[in-house]
Amino acid sequence: MRLTPLAKVLVGVAAVAVVGTASWMIWGGHGSAPTCKGLLGRPLRVGVVTWPGYAGGIMANNGFKPNKNCDYFQKYNLCVEFLLMEDLDVRKAAFAKGGPDGVDIVWSTVDTTSSEFPGFIQSGVQARSIMQVDWSRGGDAIVADASIKNIEGLAGKKISVTTGSPSQWLLEYNLNNSHLDESQKDWINKNLVGKNASPDALADFVANRVDAAVVWEPDVSAALKNRPGAHILVSSAQARKLIADVMIARADFIKDHPDVIQAFIEGWIGIGTVNANAHPDTVVQLLMDNEPVYKTIGEADTKATLSTVHWATLSDNAEMFNLDGQDPSGVPPLYDRIFDESARTWVKLGAIASPIAAFASKDDSILHKIYSSSPSPRVADVVQKCEDCNNPNKQAIVTKRITVNFPTGSSVLTPAALKVIDEQVSLLPTTFSGAYINVEGNTDDTGSRELNIALSKSRAESVINYLVTRYKLPREQFTPIGNGPDKPVASNATADGKAKNRRTDIALIAR
């Protein structure tokens, strides 16, 4: 998952991977006794894939191999060995083995943890997310042919995607927040062209075998370049807080070696990430020296990939895990909200039988300890007010239709209406922090048009006020619109039609 290298480039590496444990010996020089032992008495073994989001750890370690000429060793007496594991089965086996012959820590994403942790538990392995390392910020995208203008345009279309990956999560999250009906979404999922890697989905798209594909860089750029009329429907540039990479550790390792986990987190976030931001050229060189695909695509393209991720700071972790206790009462941490939402999706798709609780998938105790000794306030999103979001010709990326019932002639939100907003809307503005949100009130045709337009806008403002206040969202992200009866989705001649027209549309506008 993430940035799987081009197949032709890694034929040799893939051949090594299939033999099992040999695949993670490539980078560590295993076979001879490691010269760097440090705090753990051996190198801490960390499994990753090719992806620029792990720059903080690689910078702190001055590369992949265990060595003493790095911040991890010089400041924490910690030896670290990063191991490239593109094959998910090899990764899983190594994590299950643990210890000096397997791996102690591996990469994941919040959405992926919710699908794979039940399997870990069944195999007798307890895993925990210990920190966030990045946000995808444009590195993941849905690309489509020229005829598809928005997510709803995917109805009846064939889509190629790496199944069980952040790519599928990006697709499903957008489908779930569209106004496609269940039969349309079911058709799309039944006709998905499932792949094992992003380059395979890219190949389908470029060959015109599918209408759209979900890919990650550098395949996003390649798709736009190699298929005339191709464009991005939606990406993590708009869904800026949807796909987050995390590091997960074995629960027994956390219990036995909390000092090692603390050194690993502090070195990554407090030193590595800071240095990565200050010295991007060094990041590029380390990526090219240690990950074959970057050496192949060259310095300029490698550097371009850095703009598709945001390396997570302690402030980002404060928001993800609510380290500062700022989340309102009753609002779970962002990690839990993404975890639970993705778990419901995987259950619906049949990928897992039942979810586990979000709290059982994480151990943020050491993050809390680090934060308490050196607080780093959250950085508020800065949003400029949209001046033309109420333009009826403005194309929405996706539109979600919900029923928020108000008392007759009133714009006061009832407890039932608040529950609908909490369950169906509240996460969307957060995950799509890179998009504007139009909240459109709609009515049936009962009463005068003028009164209905004014009332529907007042109701839209009530929804926005609640979201801004309850979830601490920037007001500038929202535009209230009152359509009154002017945008019916059903006939007002029947009671059922009138009920469908009394709705609230949540439309995402690209920023």
Model description:
Helix 2 (55-61) packs across helix 11 and helix 5 packs across helix 16. The chain is globular. It is α/β, with parallel strands linked by helices. The protein contains 21 helices and 15 strands. Strands 2-1-3-10-4-11 form a six-stranded mixed β-sheet, sandwiched between helices. The longest helix is centred in the last third of the chain and has 23 residues, at 449-471. The chain has helices at residues 11-17, 55-61, 71-76, 88-97, 110-122, 166-176, 182-190, 198-206, 219-226, 251-256, 258-278, 280-290, 292-297, 299-305, 314-321, 334-349, 365-373, 415-424, 427-431, 449-471, 495-501; strands at 44-48, 80-84, 105-109, 127-136, 140-144, 159-162, 193-195, 212-216, 231-235, 244-250, 309-311, 396-402, 435-442, 478-484, 504-510. 41% of the residues lie in helices and 17% in strands. Mean pLDDT is 91; it is low at 3-33.
Q: Report the major sheet.
A: 6 strands, mixed
Mean pLDDT: 91
CATH topology of the largest domain, by name, is D-Maltodextrin-Binding Protein, domain 2
Share of residues in helices: 40-55%
Number of helices: 21
Order of strands across the widest beta sheet? Answer: 2-1-3-10-4-11
Q: How does the overall form come out from the CA principal axes?
A: globular
Main structural class: alpha/beta
Instruction: Let me know the CATH homologous superfamily of the largest domain.
Output: Periplasmic binding protein-like II
Low-confidence stretches: 3-33
Q: Please tell me the total number of domains.
A: 3
Q: Mind telling me the CATH class of the largest domain?
A: Alpha Beta
Based on the coordinates given, report the CATH architecture of the largest domain: 3-Layer(aba) Sandwich
CA radius of gyration:
24 Å
